[in-house]
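Quick one, tokens below:
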């Protein structure tokens, strides 16, 4: 009897604690991990709340995407796909000094797979 009671408490504890762990696990669940990793390294420096590149931040702030209404998010994702198609980001002038930050073909492919999927989903 006592043992079952303890076991129940243990279970209850698990149920209460587990969700708080999973909820704080990923701060940007909007992107798949693979895409998020590319953004962090190749785009985030200019396109984030703490960025000093005001123009870049005004056009696109990854930190603010999740809070956008559906139509605006769709426009943003479309503009991201557009720059990926053109290969215009990161900017060429920046790449002259930081060639290692150029997107590889594989990264562009992974990234575009996500934008296409997201555009389809948002256009429904
Ligand atoms: C070195 C800084 C820098 C990096 C790194 C960078 N960007 Fe940009 N980005 C800019 C600037 C500056 C602008 C604004 C350009 C303008 O208005 O002429 C911009 C504009 C954009 C726009 C808006 C285009 C438009 O005309 O509406 C998108 C989308 C974008 N960037 C996506 C990306 C993506 C995706 C990456 C990563 C692969 C990236 N950027 C990396 C500086 C950067």
């Amino acid at each position: 009897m006592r043992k079952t009671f303890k076991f129940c408490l243990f279970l209850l504890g698990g149920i209460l604690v587990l969700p708080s762990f999973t909820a704080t696990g990923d701060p940007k669940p909007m992107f798949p991990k693979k895409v998020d990793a590319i953004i962090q390294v190749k785009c985030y420096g200019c396109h984030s709340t703490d960025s000093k590149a005001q123009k870049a931040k005004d056009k696109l702030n990854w930190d603010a995407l999740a809070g956008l209404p559906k139509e605006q998010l769709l426009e943003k994702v479309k503009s991201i796909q557009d720059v990926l198609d053109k290969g215009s980001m990161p900017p060429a002038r920046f790449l002259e000094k930081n060639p290692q930050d150029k997107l590889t073909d594989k990264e562009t492919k992974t990234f575009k797979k996500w934008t296409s999927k997201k555009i389809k989903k948002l256009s429904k």
